[in-house]
TrEMBL record:
This is Mitochondrial substrate carrier family protein B. It is a multi-pass membrane protein. PANTHER family: SOLUTE CARRIER FAMILY 25. Pfam families: Mito_carr (PF00153). Residues 12-41 are annotated as: Disordered. Residues 19-41 have a biased composition (Low complexity). GO terms for cellular component: membrane. InterPro entries: MCP (IPR002067), MCP_dom_sf (IPR023395), MCP_transmembrane (IPR018108). One of its GO terms (biological process) is transmembrane transport. Solcar repeats lie at residues 49-140, 156-242, 251-341.
Length: 349
């Protein structure tokens, strides 16, 4: 719906008072200015919630979104690792419905959430650190002399969001990586249960592969997660700012959900091949199996393209899209909602 506001000329009377004249109605500039100031103050209050509140909001947002999309996340992982040990004929027969039916018939419906406990154990600290680090990296970047004078520039803000998001993603991934590796291995188990739980998986990996085995695939992870989070945050912040500028009265929840979903699609499309390589590196040597890839990161890319074709780099992208649209949307929506609630609670104390 289009809204047209016709503003007349400001006239200053003898008493120093200002009035607003309009042919089709009157609109108070002071009132508009006051509303803008209130909106800015509200956003500022939300961004200035305490450390504990930020960590809680980020952790709960990440855990909730991952739990809601756990079935699709497991399907994505199973598709991503198919090319490691399966032959070409088996891979051609695979599809989402067939794999989902196999999980239900062979493992039961609850198997869709296999590894979800460790997912939550990973996502609570990961998302907490991710959102918290992002907010603080933004503040640090904004005080850089060259950027401080250009805070209103859209290109500068986009650059800040991109860099802050990338640094936040690298920080969060490095801090919680062993749990991410355990989550992948538990989710990739089908009929043979080599790991019985989080503690058993950690002990077994350290025993069979050494402590450094807990960080297998970290290089590919950092190469992927930095750009992924950078794209996600920068696209989200840019879309949200533009949306709120054009339609300032729309629901914050709706805006966060829509912009979060679009940012998830953008980041997943750009970095999915790296995520696929990361998953395969994480599963190297599971259960005493022989290594599949004996080269570095670029050698693995060449091997996948040679044996599975270029499309092999995007194996599992469809369930990833199905997962990321609601998943990232729910994550940003929950984070923004909790920030507002916690900000209101803090202001009321």
């Amino acid at each position: 719906m289009q809204t047209e506001a016709r503003v007349g000329v400001v006239v200053e009377g003898g008493g120093g008072q200002r009035g607003l004249s309009s042919g089709h109605g009157s609109v108070s500039i002071d009132k508009l200015s006051q509303q803008q100031q209130q909106q800015q103050q509200k956003l500022q209050n939300q961004s200035q919630i305490g450390t504990v509140s930020q960590l809680i909001a980020g952790g709960v947002a990440g855990a909730l979104s991952k739990t809601c999309t756990a079935p699709l996340a497991r399907l994505t992982i199973l598709f991503q690792v198919q090319g490691m040990h399966n032959d070409a004929a088996t891979m051609r027969k695979a599809n989402i419905w067939h794999e989902a039916s196999r999980i239900v018939s062979e493992e039961g419906f609850r198997a869709f959430w296999k590894g979800n406990l460790v997912t939550i154990a990973h996502r609570l600290p990961y998302s907490s650190v991710n959102f918290y680090a992002y907010e603080h990296y933004k503040k640090l970047l904004h005080v850089i002399p060259g950027l401080q004078s250009r805070r209103e520039s859209m290109s500068t803000n986009l650059c800040v969001h991109f860099v802050a998001g990338g640094l936040a993603g690298i920080t969060a991934a490095s801090t919680t990586y062993p749990l991410d590796l355990v989550r992948t291995r538990l989710a990739a188990q089908t009929n043979v249960m080599y790991y019985r739980g989080i503690g058993h998986a950690l002990q077994t990996i350290c025993r069979d592969e050494g402590v450094l085995g807990l960080y297998k695939g970290l290089g590919a992870t950092l190469l992927g997660v930095g750009p992924s989070i950078a794209i996600s945050f920068s696209v989200y912040e840019t879309l949200r700012s533009y949306w709120q500028l054009q339609r300032p009265h729309d629901s914050t929840v709706l805006v966060s959900l829509a912009c979060g979903s679009l940012s998830g699609i953008a980041s997943s499309t750009a970095t999915f091949p790296l995520d696929l390589v990361r998953r395969r590196k994480q599963l190297e040597g599971v259960g005493g199996r022989a290594r599949v890839y004996t080269t570095g990161l670029f050698g693995i890319f060449k091997h996948i393209i040679r044996t599975e074709g270029f499309c092999g780099l995007y194996r599992g992208i469809l369930p990833e899209y199905y997962k990321v649209v609601p998943g990232v949307g729910i994550c940003f929506m929950t984070y923004e909602t909790l920030k507002m609630l916690l900000a209101d609670m803090n202001s009321g104390l």
